[in-house]
Amino acid sequence: MKAKDYRTTLEPVWCTGCGDFGVLKGLTQALSDLEVPVEKLAVISGIGCSSRLPGYVRSYAFNTVHGRALPIATGLKVSRPELTTVVVGGDGDGFSIGLGHIPHAVRRDVDLTYAVLDNGIYGLTKGQASPTTDPDLKRELGLAGAGERPLNPVLMLLGSGCGFVARTHAGNLPHLRAMFREAIRHPGFAFVHVLAACVTYQPGSYAEALWKRCSMLPDEYDPSSFDAAIETARAERFMLGVIYRRPTDRVPVTANPEPLESVGIWPPVGATSGSTYPG
Ligand code: SF4
User: What is the value of pTM for the model shown?
Assistant: First the structure.
């Protein structure tokens, strides 16, 4: 199937120039590259501008409730493991109301691809500050929380133990396509941080500054190095590419390297409520 064959007949209602168009295109191109049959595809979202995307992709599509796309997608994937399951949403949906679900989805390591279209603003509700809004922009637009630093999503996902973390830009279609392809291929929870600007609620200079702040990871970059990934996530520049891909023989950084049976289990075998538990 060609990328266009993954599109439904619904016309997107996004503003002209919105980065969500790029994500839709990059995703359908990657699905075409991987030859994912539409009857084996699910696209799940929360609420927001980018969360409209499932309606435009031929799939089992579900535009769910605010911040709850990950648990719904997890339930779907464990009950229907044959479905390639992609979760999409924005920074408000994923990093504010939905934030608590991220580390749990990561530690369960269910085979989902989670793409957050991070434009650093709430677009659907007309331009409030989100957890990733740039402080200078907050000052310029008079938004609340100008003194608060933005969240670093890539660092947060790495710290949670995510086995695949990539970053791309909605304006770079070949790169977006490649990152989606790699993420969908990853056999576990994969996170794609998609940078974009909101053309309606941010000044044009924001998009330009964002683009200028991006650089490609160099060819010699080693995505199997967790230390390199942390350094990359903390860099001033937004480095684009596969930032971390955990080798299959390595346990998540957050896990105890000892097998569970050798470190004991809790509660102890035979414990009964009220007798063995402290307090
Ligand atoms: Fe895109 Fe912003 Fe328009 Fe929403 S408001 S569709 S994020 S440009």
Answer: 0.92
20 lines ligand 1 (CB under 6 A): yes
In angstroms, what is the span from residue 201 Cα to ligand 1's centroid? 7
User: Is the CB of 123 within 6 Å of ligand 1?
Assistant: yes
pLDDT level of residue 251 (50, 70, 90 thresholds): confident
In the chain, alpha helices (H): 20-33, 69-79, 91-92, 101-108, 135-141, 153-160, 173-185, 204-212, 226-233, 260-263
**What SS3 class is residue 145?**
coil
Summarize pLDDT for 192-246 with one digit per residue, the tens. Answer: 999 999 999 999 999 999 999 999 999 999 999 999 999 999 999 999 999 999 9
Decide whether any atom of ligand 1 lies within 6 Å of the 122 Cβ.
no
84: which strand partners?
Answer: 41
CB 245 within 8 A of CB 164: yes
Residue 73 tokens read as 């997608």
